[in-house]
Design a protein that fits this description.
The chain has about 525 residues and is α+β, with helices and mostly antiparallel strands. The protein has 16 helices and 24 strands. A seven-stranded mixed β-sheet has the order 11-12-13-4-14-22-15. A six-stranded mixed β-sheet has the order 17-21-16-20-18-19. A hairpin with a 5-residue loop joins β5 and β6. α15 packs antiparallel against α16. The termini are far apart.
Length: about 525
């Protein structure tokens, strides 16, 4: 070949390659960086919703964690869903049947559901998920929630039987929770110890992209998602392309990020924010009744907390009204019992009557009777956030009034959990969020020691009462049983209940069609984001 012909042939190939690259890019909708530094796809800016949180996840493995990050709700689906009135509705199961004796529940799975790795969801994955949670070797914190299940039986690829030990009216609730998210057996076993950290595979509306611990969790929308619950206005892919869950422990920093527009939503808003953002035209506060409860706890298997009189004295020493006013700006109510009043049928109505009123002299008398007339010196652990540290300081002053000197120790969220797991705690602050009485099983059954039974409460009477309530044949008898559980816990002063916060979510105006769900906001349900 002549030299000039070779040059022409090479040039022709380069031109063809360039044209091919351009056409390929147009056909696949490649993403490129826009002038503002934000991603753009097909000329449209990516819709990236940023949500601010007080604390980070422990691990993104719902089978092994006791603290469920919101990310898990979006990555996974569950057999049962709950609508805006908190009714039980189909999820991954399009329907279910119950045997006449209530001992066998048959779930019929939706066709065409796929995990994020492209493998189809089958009844084998459902069986594997539930069996793994129930396996004692897994040591799942949620194991006791599923204790009513005797066996899980695969009927065919899309049908599974859940066989019970006894009738269990709470089964739909258990199967609608984050702990019952259906995982891919293949993915879970393939990634081993890296699952929940570098890899997370579900069937949900969002897929896991990355987790920078202590900083953020990044999720991207599942473009193939077409099996959303029918009660949602949108059952297909989300309008929002990406969700970033940012960890911002410091209260004022979260507020500044919200006001500056770097964060669109604050999931759990401190009460102090209401006054600070009340006149902000770009932010709206959504308010609702919560199923949360904040309390002061102690390691009940350690002295001096083994003495009932000491536990009672601590309860009497707490001025809850002062805490509601000073710490929570009168947003919320004092907690008298072990469940929030929003759980109307399960809440023990005599919690206040049977509980411990604020009484400094009574607290001093109890400490004297217990042999601590000269007082006590204790450590109080709390997570290092503005609200918790302020609450710890108020409690420090209140306990000092009855002769208990307290040293405050603050931890980041992961270190706090590690400390509780190893049993180093004396006094410590906790807040739970759960819409069912079985939260008491979670924290107070002896089988849950040492985690998540942080209080280290090992009491046969509590175990018997909880197991009797949980195995009740009807919802009414179950509720009555949990009333007895709460009555006993109050008599034993196992915790010192303090407050029930109001549910507050701050939302910027860029977020369109926001919907307040009684459990958690589903951002794939018609919610959109305006981007400049």
């Amino acid at each position: 070949m002549k030299k000039n012909s070779k040059r022409k042939w090479t040039l022709a190939l380069l031109v063809l390659f360039t044209i091919s690259s351009i056409l390929t890019g147009c056909a696949t909708g490649d993403t490129v960086d826009g002038p503002s530094g934000e991603s753009e796809a097909n000329g449209e800016k990516e819709k990236v919703l940023v949500i601010g949180y007080e604390r980070d996840a422990e691990i993104l493995d719902h089978i092994k964690t006791g603290w469920y990050s919101d990310a898990l709700v979006y990555i996974y689906d569950r057999l049962v869903s709950r609508d805006y009135d908190f009714n039980y509705e189909p999820g991954l199961a399009e329907s279910w049947d119950t045997s006449e004796d209530g001992m066998i529940w048959t779930f019929h799975l939706k066709e065409g559901v796929k995990f994020h790795n492209g493998t189809p969801l089958t009844a084998d994955d459902v069986k594997w998920t539930l069996d793994t949670i129930l396996d004692p070797d897994t040591a799942s914190p949620a194991q006791s929630d599923f204790a009513a299940i005797k066996a899980v039986e695969v009927v065919d690829d899309l049908t599974v039987n859940v066989i019970l030990n006894t009738p269990f009216p709470n089964l739909l609730f258990v199967l609608s929770n984050t702990s019952a998210s259906i995982a891919s057996q293949d993915a879970y076993e393939e990634y081993g110890d890296e699952y929940g950290i570098k890899y997370v595979i579900g069937t949900g509306a969002y897929m896991f992209e990355e987790w920078i611990q202590g900083d953020k969790i990044v999720l991207v929308k599942n473009p193939d998602y077409t099996w959303g619950p029918e009660w949602m206005s949108n059952t297909g892919p989300s309008a929002i392309d990406k969700i970033v869950l940012r960890t911002i422990p410091e209260e004022n920093s979260r507020l500044m990020e919200l006001l500056s527009g770097n964060v669109h939503i604050l999931r759990d808003v401190p009460a102090t924010f209401i006054d600070k953002v009340g006149d902000e035209p770009d932010v709206e506060i959504f308010r609702g009744e919560s199923t949360k409860l904040g309390y002061l706890a102690y390691a009940t298997d350690k002295e001096p907390f083994t003495d009932l009189r000491v536990r009672q004295a601590i309860n009497h020493a707490i001025n809850k009204d002062e805490i509601i006013t000073y710490v929570f700006r009168d947003v919320g109510i004092a907690a008298d019992g072990y469940l929030p009043p929003a759980l109307t049928s399960e809440y023990y109505a005599d919690s206040k009557k049977d509980g411990y009123e604020y009484n400094v002299e009574k607290a001093k008398e109890l400490l004297k009777d217990a042999g601590f007339e000269d007082g006590l010196k204790l450590k109080l652990a709390a997570e290092n956030s503005t609200e918790y540290s302020r609450l710890a300081e108020v409690l420090q002053n209140q306990l000092k009034d009855v002769g208990i000197e307290v040293e405050i120790q603050l931890y980041d969220s992961s270190s706090y959990t590690a400390m509780l797991r190893t049993g180093e705690q004396e006094l410590f602050l906790r807040l739970y969020s759960w819409p069912n009485a079985d939260i008491l099983d979670w924290f107070l059954l002896s089988s849950q020691m040492p985690y998540p039974n942080h209080s280290r409460w090992n009491d046969p009477t509590t175990d018997e009462l909880i197991k009797a309530a949980a195995s009740s044949p009807t919802w009414e008898t179950r509720a009555d049983g949990y009333h007895e559980v709460q009555k006993h816990l109050i008599s034993q002063a196992v915790w010192a209940p303090i407050y029930v916060p109001e549910r507050l979510i701050a939302v910027r105006k860029e977020v369109q069609n926001f919907k307040l769900h009684p459990w958690i906001t589903f951002y794939n349900d018609g919610i959109d984001l305006i981007v400049d």
